[in-house]
Records
---
Amino acid sequence: MSMKHIMSKETTSSLTNVQAKDIQPNAVDLRVGKVLEISDNDFTIDETQKIHRGTKPVDVFEDGYWYLYPGAYEVIMDNEIEVGMGEAGFVITRSTLNRNGVYLTTGLYDTGYKGIMAGVMHVTCGRMKIKPGTRIGQYLNFDAEALHKYDGDYGKGKAHDKKYE
């Protein structure tokens, strides 16, 4: 795998809302914009349908923090991405979170995907206090052979994307 920094002139991908201190040697830090509590409703998936559990926003307290108890939370980043031709990427957890029992999981960002960046933040032990705009993940961009562009249910202009506006 050949990594290609998303902020280099050699990439065809782009990322919004990047601050100078977000640019790391091999990746770009991503900041949390929204935290959503995932309901415990049934999740149904097969080859013809997806019925999501549903979510509700976690409120920011007067002190400016979200208070997250052990569990899984959907997170929406402050960044949006457009993955260029011949490239793909994924998000890894920042090491500070890992060392404190918190980790992110996301799917692959395929060639041609354009839209929000989202994932699940797993708080595994004890309460976590986190402010909006905190850096929680790093986007890794790499060269990828693509047979076609992304055409899934998520991203700009897709019905699922409307819930994040």
---
Amino acid sequence: MKDPKISVIVPVYNVEEYLPKCLDSILNQTFSDIEIICVNDGATDSSRKILEEYKQKDSRIIIVDKKNGGLSSARNAGMKVAKGEFFSFIDSDDWIDYTMLEKLYNNITEYNSDISICAVHQYDETKQDIDDSNPYYTLGFFNNTFDNRAFSYKDTKSFIMDVCVMAWNKLYRRSLIEECKAQFPDGLIFEDGPFFFTIFFKTQRVSIVRDFLYYYRINRKNSIIQKAGKKFLNVIDVAEIMLGKIKDLEDFDDIKYIFFRKKVEDFIYRFEHLNPKYKAAFAKKLKRESSLIDENLFPPSMVRGKFRYNYFLFKNLKTGNTFFYEFQKFKLKSMYKLMEILYHEEGVYYLKYKTNILRIKKRPKFFDIYYSDDRIYVRILKKIKFDFKFKFSQLEKFNEDD
């Protein structure tokens, strides 16, 4: 019997509620030359029984049983027994479009690529709704010059840390994975980045499919991300692994500040969602183990100039003083909220603060603003109720550009 074209690797752990939908979406693919390697990672619910029932109905399903070791361990175990020319990873609480494997296979063969990437729907379990607003998942950072061709990481340097690293919206050429000896870091969460960049930096041929072919379930109850426990500290370990990979690149200096921005954003996001009892440990680990505090590698004058907001939050976070971190965050967000109130009207104030120029649109009927002694003063001329939605990312981009 010949080997299948595609090995689909599905890690399974306590997902009895979601597993049938996932398996049905794989078994009913329009591309049928596949094997489905389901790695039972020590599930304690009925997931193992569900796998056996599906195996009886379709011989393409292969069950691998192992002790619980986490997602990385399960994926690595699946790769060891996979026989396909190409690998696909599907998480067992997600599902895929029935044409996903066919479209990725056609794309990877047409352009002789090593990796083919598709767009992703985020399905919010709480809202029971699909969210396509995040360009990280929608391939929004790739402009139309990336269509209908193969490219390398060098073509993505301006947004390299915004390329989706998740394992599951891709098809990989097996020979590249073996050549790179790529593995998911055992025992860590946020494991996708090290695996992806290990192979992304080694290939000259990556291609994309604009179609939304993967359904990523977010806000799922009992997921490790929802628990926000001590495992969140792994974000620091994973950043160190990824930094080790980009340090070897000839164009490291072109990428390192983009890396700094992205990883500080990750640290801040995980810290703010972390169970409060682990926050002190997070700050201590950051100060002790993170290379992002290396001022020789990331000079403060450079990162402060490029990413001012991130720099000041990170500066307080790495000292371990969570009070000043929260206070700094409050001050900065308050300032940007005020700026947004003023921003949406005609006319502009230009304010100099030390070496920085702030451009703020006027609300002359309600505010008078003036600058003196490195301070910005606001005088309220008329009381008004403000009804606005604060979108910080837009304001941060506005400030960086100006």
---
Amino acid sequence: MKDGKIIVARLWPTFGGNIPTVIPVICGMDPQKYETIGIYLTKTSDIPNMLEQNGKKIFFVTRKQKLPIFPLSFFRLAKILKEQQVDILHCHHHRATYQGVIAGLLARVPVIISHVHGMGRTRNLSRKIQNYFLFPHVDKIFAVGQATRDDIVKFNPSVDPKKVVNIGNSIDFKYFSTGNNNRQAFREKYNIPQDAFLFATAGRLAPTKGQMYLIEAFAKIRKQIPNAKLFFAGNGQLKEDLEKKAAELGCADSVYLPGRIENMPEFYNSIDCFLLPSVAEGLPRTLIEAMAAGVLSIASNVGGIPEILNNGKYGILTPPENADVLAKAMLDAFNMPAEKKNEMTKSARESVKTNYDYPVMIKRIENYYDELIAGAK
């Protein structure tokens, strides 16, 4: 400890830009008890660092895009950890864990945490072998959701299951739940009729998000819902393919792919049904955001999605890669009685506030930090 405070180092593989959802959690930690610094192995962007702008110290093992040759990177990181008198090294993603565990042992850091952000991170042989040697030196493994936790335990049989915990995910509940954004202006901006029933999804346009099945499902329901429209918020490699698919299925005039949306609360407030037809997921923030905004949601029964939707209590679950079932779910959402819809979305919003709001995550992490520090003494 330094000046009576627990020194926490958050370690990432690279600084390639800010992760806005992380900043409020880090900066929301009790300043009388914790001092957090940010460390990056490499640097791939020159934009201002939000942690630094919020008064946190930041460090780089190297300001280049590649780490120095073995074993120089370990010694450089260990030097930072020792000089800053780090008590807890909180490593995000595998590469940071790999570097962090070795450097943490060199610097004799009392507590090391590995933070796993998604499914399927330990399924190849090389990763399993590395984890076999790394995880015994990790004091706790944070998983973003129960499905991710179960995935870690399943594919790392040597790890103590008690060491792996579901830390969850978090959003700014107040920001997404205010509902004071201009629905009419949003629709006018994108030439969406005010009376349209707007289905929508958000996230990168990529095969793993199952968006091709969403296009197919939408094409199937157009005759039953003549005023239906479909909106994609986000960019990605699949954009041209999605546009081509919509044209082939004769629904291009009702499909919108404008790219990145800056005002996401306004987006959620302007749609009638949110969809996440993913093939694979961890614990997706977009679904949690939509629920906070009070939007009826349909999502695939994969990864951490059933956990978020409480196995269908807070939204409609569908099997992945099945356009027919997805189309039926979209019709069910359209025809859902207002009373049932309001009950479902109200319960969903309350669940988000209870389980996924920033203050909830901050307290959860602080409790683990305290427990680990106490055990390290």
